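Appendix C: a fully annotated inverse folding record. The material below is reproduced so that readers can follow the format used throughout the book. The structure is listed first as tokens, followed by the designed sequence.
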């Protein structure tokens, strides 16, 4: 699904990015239907207008976009590939979010979604930084 590099996505999702840039970046991770559902956008043209800067999202939608942005940045910054981040947003998480997917739950409890992303980021870092163990090597 995502076609941009992690660096390109991080640039679009930076703290200083415009709403149009954020929407373009999020559309690399979420389908238009998912982003519309999360933000309350009522038509595909709304997302298109936001992504080009022709119109601005209303306050509630802009807040959701920022919550999605910071969550995506947490996961990307931990080394998850964009495709894995996209799957994380779309997957159900057992015992979390009352059966909702993170992109759905972000409107009701953004801090819980961010906490889950932090946990995923920590697990990813731990796997990546785990020392190599040689098995069956010569004894000292």
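Designed amino acids, in order:
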């Amino acid at each position: 699904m995502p076609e941009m590099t992690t660096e390109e996505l991080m640039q679009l999702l930076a703290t200083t990015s415009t709403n149009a840039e954020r929407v373009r970046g999020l559309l690399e991770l979420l389908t238009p239907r998912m982003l519309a559902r999360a933000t309350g956008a009522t038509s595909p043209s709304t997302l298109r207008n936001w992504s080009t800067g022709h119109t601005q999202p209303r306050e509630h939608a802009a807040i959701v976009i920022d919550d999605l942005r910071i969550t995506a940045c947490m996961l990307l910054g931990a080394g998850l590939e964009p495709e894995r981040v996209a799957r994380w947003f779309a997957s159900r998480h057992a015992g979390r979010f009352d059966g909702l997917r993170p992109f759905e739950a972000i409107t009701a409890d953004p801090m819980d979604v961010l906490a889950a992303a932090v946990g995923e980021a920590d697990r990813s870092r731990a796997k990546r930084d785990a020392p190599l163990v040689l098995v069956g090597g010569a004894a000292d």
